[in-house]
């Protein structure tokens, strides 16, 4: 059960210094912002009016971004992103008492609701972030979603539908990108397990001492993300943090762990983190798409051959998530195949 929590948004109103339990371990990795040739690729989807040549270009660009960066942004995707951002921001601007009516009942994104801490461990470093978590597929429990602002439920439900459709299309491009039939990865996932997490990162008196989200890879299949105009998201590339520049209206997409596994490593689930700002709050809306917890996923047999040995063992998604929750989001330890901390089920059997 979640006990009382103090939203970071409330803390940030009065504090001049960051409380000890929010101070993140120091990170020695340098940050790069706008170095030429160093930004996350942007793919123009042309509102899906794609000639055969353009279709081929999109497949090529998405496949190469997903293998080299694990991240890309799409523009002209046909989705209205302003309404979901507006209702979400309006929710976070409500009085604390109104928001706390929706306090999440459990830690670790198991149920719909408003929260801040993701674990109650005494030694856990707290994140400079509040969130609202929505389970959106296979089932939506709209009664537990905010009733204020009035349009919230309808707009966020619509965003879930729009994201399901876009995800299907992106999975199609990703399947074709490794020479598989268009519906291949969609079929591997089966019934969509989708959630929407709105992250709210208040301004911070000492922004360099805290993290909005610590370095992690996403444990689902594919993540779609709306950024507002404020930078904060950084992706690890060649041992450097690269800022994902917010492009108005764009959707940021990243390969998550299950797709790395299904694609036998052709696509990469890359480590990223979130920094916060001194005065400007930042909000993002992240939607995760994966399979149901009792489904087992495996590398596509078509992607295993002499040149591409099998890198991962099949895994039941629920077991994988439990492992992540138990150990906390420590980078990408569960996916590294040559890593001591990898759990047993990710190892190849010894011959
Ligand atoms: C996440 C995440 C990035 C952001 O929610 O997993 O990485 O910009 N969010 O908020
Ligand atoms: Ni993430």
Automatic annotation (TrEMBL):
Presence of keyword Metal-binding: yes
GO molecular function: metal ion binding; oxidoreductase activity
Pfam families: 2OG-FeII_Oxy, DIOX_N
Matching Gene3D superfamilies: B-lactam Antibiotic, Isopenicillin N Synthase, Chain (2.60.120.330)
UniProt domain Fe2OG dioxygenase: residue ranges: 192-291
Keywords: Iron, Metal-binding, Oxidoreductase
InterPro entries the record matches: DIOX_N (IPR026992), IPNS-like_FE2OG_OXY (IPR044861), IPNS-like_sf (IPR027443), Oxoglu/Fe-dep_dioxygenase_dom (IPR005123), Plant_2OG-oxidoreductases (IPR050295)
Keyword Metal-binding attributed: yes
UniProt record similarity statement: Belongs to the iron/ascorbate-dependent oxidoreductase family.
Entry protein name: 2-oxoglutarate-iron(II)-dependent oxygenase
């Amino acid at each position: 059960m979640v006990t009382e929590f103090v939203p970071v948004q409330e803390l940030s109103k009065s504090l001049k210094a960051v409380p000890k339990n929010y101070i993140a371990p120091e990170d020695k990795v340098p940050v790069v912002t706008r170095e030429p040739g160093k930004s996350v690729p942007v793919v123009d989807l042309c509102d899906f009016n794609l000639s055969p040549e353009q279709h081929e270009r999109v497949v090529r660009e998405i496949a190469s971004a997903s293998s080299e960066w694990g991240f890309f942004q799409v523009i002209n995707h046909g989705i209205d992103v302003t309404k979901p951002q507006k209702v979400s921001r309006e929710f976070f601007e409500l009085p604390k008492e109104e928001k706390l009516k929706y306090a999440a009942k459990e830690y670790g994104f198991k149920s719909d609701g408003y929260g801040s801490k993701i674990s109650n461990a005494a030694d856990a470093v707290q994140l400079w972030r509040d969130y609202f978590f929505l389970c959106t597929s296979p089932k939506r429990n709209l009664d537990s979603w905010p009733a204020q602002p009035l349009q919230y439920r309808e707009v966020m439900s619509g965003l879930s539908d729009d994201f399901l459709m876009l995800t299907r299309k992106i999975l199609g491009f990703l399947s074709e990108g490794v020479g598989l039939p268009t519906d291949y990865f969609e079929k591997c996932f089966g019934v969509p397990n989708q959630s929407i997490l709105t992250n709210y990162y208040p301004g911070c008196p000492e922004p360099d001492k805290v993290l909005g989200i610590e370095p992690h890879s996403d444990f689902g299949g594919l993540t779609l993300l709306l950024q507002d105009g404020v930078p904060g998201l950084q992706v690890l590339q060649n041992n450097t943090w690269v800022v994902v520049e917010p492009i108005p209206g764009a959707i940021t997409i990243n390969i998550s762990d299950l797709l790395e596994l299904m694609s036998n490593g052709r696509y990469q689930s890359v480590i990223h983190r979130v920094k916060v700002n001194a005065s400007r709050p930042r909000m993002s809306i992240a939607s995760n798409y994966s399979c149901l917890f009792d489904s087992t996923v495996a590398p596509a047999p078509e992607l295993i051959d002499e040149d591409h040995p099998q890198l991962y063992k099949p895994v039941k998604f629920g077991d994988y998530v439990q492992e992540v929750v138990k150990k906390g989001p420590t980078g990408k330890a569960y996916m590294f195949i040559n890593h001591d901390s990898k759990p047993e089920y990710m190892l190849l059997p010894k011959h």
